[in-house]
Amino acid sequence: AEYTIAKNVIDETKEEKMAEVGAKLEKGLDFVGLTAVEDRLQDGVPEAISTIKAMGIRLWVLTGDKTETAVDIARSCRLFTDATTMAYAVQAADAQDAEDKLLKAHVMLERKTDTGLVLDGQMLLHALPNPECRKIIYDLGVVSRSCICARLSPLQKLELVKLVREQNKLSITLAVGDGANDVPMIQGAHVGIAIRGKEGTQAVQASDISISYFRFLVPLLLCHGRRGAYRRVALFLNYYLYKNVALLMCDIWWMFQDKFRARIAFPEYLSIGFNVLYSAWHILFVLGFDEDVTDEVACSRPSLYEPGPRRELFNLKLFTRWILVGILQGSMAWVIPFALVGTTEYNKFEPGPFWVCSTTAFTAINLIVCFKLMLYSQSMLAISCWLPTAGALCYGIALFLIGYTSIGKSFQPNMWHIPGELVNNTDALLAVIAATAGALSLDVVGLLVSYFVWPSQLELVRRKR
Fold it and tell me: What is the per-residue burial (b if ≥16 Cβ within 10 Å, else e) of 51-82?
């Protein structure tokens, strides 16, 4: 009864009163024995950690366990090996002591390859409020391949995640946890992953992604993350902005030729479908079903993950290259047809030679962006890669509706019978072919040079298949 009363206390004396009642109960007891309880690792954890380390990811284990227990678990799951150079920075007495121990650990680990760091809550209690110590902790995380932080509170776990994000604005943090004490850390990282288990559902509810076993982290990173969340999204961003820049260049060229009279270069009801029907929707299928290597090959080649952390597929240099190519290819799509069949005689309400030239250039720009997407697909023989041809079909239908139906004539009178004139005009057809081939030759040459001279890790793996 006394223990129940003490347990129901709601002020700060609760723990003290429960301890007093417990001390009264624990008298006259006979020692019987000890029971050891093993918290076994899930299947595949050591292999998963080895793979993740080979991917170039730095692993920090933030736990509430004792330091000795945490280190033993780290060895059993191959976070640390017998060859790992270990540095301990634990049990700091004050901020100065914490800084001295951190500097000593840094001296031990620098210029070495397989290194490991061990910190504890007492060390971080004094180190985290100190800006100098925070910088040293981050530097230690960079020089060490793995780190164990033991005896941490949930708030200290969050503070370590914030420390990394604060010291390196370009860093990407991923937190994995399975319990309520991991929720602050999961929410503080860029990506929070929860492991469903017996620790409750708080972590799952707070996470971005939940998995059933730790080993599922490997395919999540090497398959879904590398291929889907990075490679496909990077190509999507580059391509989507590129094709609009290419289209815009035609308007810019015409703006100068027309002496800034604010007259349109393309028929309104033809160009309005560029981002809706001709060049946009099929990219979802091309990239959604694009497959560079199989999941089995991806999970067995950790090096394939390296372009992501290095930002090789989406960076300022690469994006600038896409935009510059878009400027050049868009210019070719307008200048070549205008040189062969163009004229500046402009009548917005009557069909004429200008609209033949305009439609020729618009046809060329659609073919250029369509075939460019196919060139950059990783599965050129797959059906999904040829879906851009459906965009060309939509374009042909739009030309027919605008040029040969009564509703098309009422909305776009300057396009009446223009598609037929384009098809029957040899110079116009030659202009479409020349503009498309000339523009895409830049990509073909670049891809061939990349394939044979500077092949990526992915291309080398694909050759061995």
Answer: bbbebebebbbbbbbebeebbebbeebbbbee
Coil vs helix vs strand at 331: helix
Other Cβ atoms less than 10 A from the Cβ of 253: the count is: 18
How far CA 157 is from CA of 86, 172, 177, 373, in Å, comes to 21, 16, 11, 44
Instruction: Please say whether the beta carbons of 186 and 168 come within 8 A.
Output: no
| Beta pairing, strands 85-89 & 174-177 | unpaired
CA-CA distance, 448 to 27, in Å (whole number)? 83
CA distance 124 to 279: 54
Give per-residue pLDDT as tens, 61-75: 999 889 998 998 899
- Spatial neighbors of 13 by CB under 8 A, at least 6 apart, are none
pLDDT digits (tens, 9 = 90+) for 11-53: 778 888 888 888 888 788 888 888 876 667 888 999 999 999 9
350 exposed, middle or buried (CB, 10 Å; 0-12, 13-18, 19+)? exposed
* Spatial contact of 409 and 346, defined as CB atoms under 8 Å apart: no
- Which backbone phi and psi does 200 adopt, to 5 degrees? 100, 180
Kindly state the helix (H) or strand (E) to which residue 404 belongs, with its residue range.
Answer: helix 388-404
Q: How far apart are the first and last CA of the chain?
A: 72
Q: At what angle do helices 95-109 and 131-143 cross, to 10 degrees?
A: 20
H or E element at residue 109: helix 95-109
What stretch of H or E contains 115?
strand 115-120
Strand partners, 146: 59, 116
Containing H/E element for 141?
helix 131-143
Residue 437 CB contacts under 8 Å (≥ 6 apart), including other chains: none
